[in-house]
């Protein structure tokens, strides 16, 4: 099945959303961030999961939009915390307006996300909101862990996986679960879909870490080695730190806190050389594959005909093979 | 009726709430702000309204707690925006930790407020969450207007009333409405109680403006004239600006942006003198009484025996006569 029809439905739904009018300072930033686009993967996952149980996905459209609004709320607040100047190549909200406006507009977006879920069938409302709230709190926990890890010397790989699970993966898992629950899928199916999404999400984030170092510069869209330059504790870096010889460790540590432009190229080159010596690329690819295989096992366990699951499987594979 | 039994129920309920454990950086600030106390007026209003329809208020306890958690979420985020160093005489969360933590802990509090409402009877859940979400967005709008007004030269009294309605009054109105809705009160009653709360809320905020200038220093707890010193556009100031003679206007304007400690006493004295000449105190008291009378009309219209409403009426009068 072609996902472009679903994507079009999502874009049409998002374009009809009304966030509010007055005061303009509060609502213009919401329209702005929602207009910056993005792949709209989360609402697509909602609809794809919904479609497994009912061809008619109309009643999943507003809930799908809710997930996208929630996701953009987290981006708006994360960008303040990370002092990010750009989002999808455009000024972030706190840069274009200011931090106070970004805090408050984000708060309203979280409320609007809940409101978009209130149209769910009454017999499913409580369950949907419980799952959503649990996920929302977990995403915040993930962001807090991410900030904590920046300040810490030592982070284990297990802790790192826990962080990206909360910060990124659980929302993908929730998206799929939501689509299933809305259409009255069996609980076990909904849970397998959620686990599928979680594992794809972890693999997706590891792929992100990998592309930062080993991506194709022309396709990646961002500077290669950005994570190395900013001393980010990615899966690659944490694995290297665990396995490095004293000499390799010295090389990595000697580059810490050196973020000057003048030595940027050399820093990326030398740290990448250590990665190469340790086979970090292959290890990361292996880890991505492990999570992806785990994801597929959960998808296989979902009790719908195999043919019906082809689109979701294909999308997941595309996410794994993406180069940007 | 004595409200202390209800207050005790509220405090007991609040003390049993569990916000989360890990990461500590996220949850400790929530426990901290909730431990700072406060009058807990909003949950008390929920229970008092609930009691009008059913002596048993047990099922209103968690929803009442939700309103208090929501209120403290707004305080946590407002304090960042207002760069407030103190809250209830203690360090604010962004001062004690940092702004990022205050943003994120606030976000989780908003989620927790929703979660506390999810136990509501299924047939009332959607309505309760719609009312709550509408109110939550309005409170954000009020905060945005408040920030806008700080930057603006001219603010009309009507705009000011609109701002305090959104920022302060609607949550009091919602608290009462919530209590009524939870116990299956007729819609007209719920709406009258909401209007009662709105009008009490406006009167309450105007009383706050009044106490800042004409309060008893020993009882008020804050510095007298704080609003004058910080050039805050209160009801008193806006009324004075509308009615001032050219000479009085000159006096007020000449003090703008002068916030030095050395001239603080003189500034408060001179601006207060203009207020005195214009009879601003009496006019504000008159306005407070107008809103309070309007509130009482709505309370009178609530279709329960008059005796049952005595406690709510008494509480409202105490709020009006408070000196701190």
UniProtKB/TrEMBL annotation, chains A, B:
EC main class here is transferase
Q: Which UniProt keywords apply?
A: Magnesium, Metal-binding, Transferase
Cite the InterPro entries for this sequence: Isoprenoid_synthase_dom_sf, Polyprenyl_synt, Polyprenyl_synt_CS
**Can you name one GO molecular function term for this protein?**
transferase activity
Which Pfam family, an example, fits this chain? Answer: polyprenyl_synt
EC nos: 2.5.1.-
Q: Which cofactors are named for this entry?
A: Mg(2+)
Q: Which family does it belong to?
A: Belongs to the FPP/GGPP synthase family.
What protein does this entry describe?
A: Polyprenyl synthetase family protein
- Could you read off the lineage of the organism from its UniProt record? Bacteria, Pseudomonadati, Bacteroidota, Cytophagia, Cytophagales
